[in-house]
Design a protein that fits this description.
Layout (H helix, E strand, L loop, with lengths): L8 H17 L7 H16 L4 E6 L12 E6 L6 E6 L11 H19 L7 E6 L25 E2 L6 E2 L2 E2 L5 E2 L12
Parallel strand pairs: 3-4
Antiparallel strand pairs: 1-2, 2-3, 5-8, 6-7
Helix pairs in contact: 1-2
Length: 189
């Protein structure tokens, strides 16, 4: 149905993410990051068809320090054009927040790991970071006392000449912006 390549990948990822966002905002339950990843992957599969190769939890970070050694999602239709995606789903509990300082640091760790993958044996042609939250604090500039380098506010840009290190991995050379799409803020989501 659809071949994943440089001309199709951005639209595919954006369209699938929009469908996932709509499901979340209409009340679809999200109990874990894996649910988020599966919802997204199911949408990709419905658009790409039988030629899609999917690999969850690819152990491609084995050479890196840190707790997790797994990439959330790797997919492709042609082995020479692989796509790597990391997902985050911190959720505010009924008793408090989602440990925002640690989560913001983990966001930057995932960005650094995606940079690492570009020059690894896996060598994905495109890398994406997708995150859903139920707390405004990730979207806004806060008065942080810890993790001052790890800002996730809407519009915040990481410049390529940065000196940021996340879990021992440099983000030097990474340039990206945090763009929080118009999400609904309701009590049930």
């Amino acid at each position: 149905m659809l071949d994943i390549n440089q001309g199709t990948v951005d639209n595919l990822v954006n369209e699938c993410w929009k469908v996932v966002q709509d499901k979340i905002e209409s009340g679809n339950p999200l109990s874990s990051e894996k649910t988020l990843c599966f919802l997204f992957t199911m949408e990709v599969a419905s658009r790409v068809g039988k030629s899609l190769v999917i690999d969850f939890e690819n152990q491609c970070y084995g050479n890196l320090d840190g707790k997790s050694k797994y990439l959330d999602l790797l997919f492709y239709t042609d082995e020479s054009y692989k796509i790597a995606i990391e997902f985050k789903l911190p959720t505010k509990s009924k008793k408090g927040n989602s440990n925002q300082t640690q989560t913001r640091e983990n966001v930057y760790r995932d960005l650094a790991r995606l940079k690492f993958l570009k020059t690894s044996n896996l060598s994905p042609k495109a890398c994406y970071f997708l995150m859903a939250v139920n707390e405004d604090s990730y979207l806004n500039n806060g008065c942080y006392r810890k993790g001052l380098d790890f800002i996730t506010a809407d519009g915040h840009t990481i410049k390529s000449d940065n000196n940021i290190i996340a879990e021992g991995i440099s983000l030097s050379g990474v340039e990206c912006s945090f763009i929080w799409h118009n999400t609904l803020s309701t009590e049930k989501n």
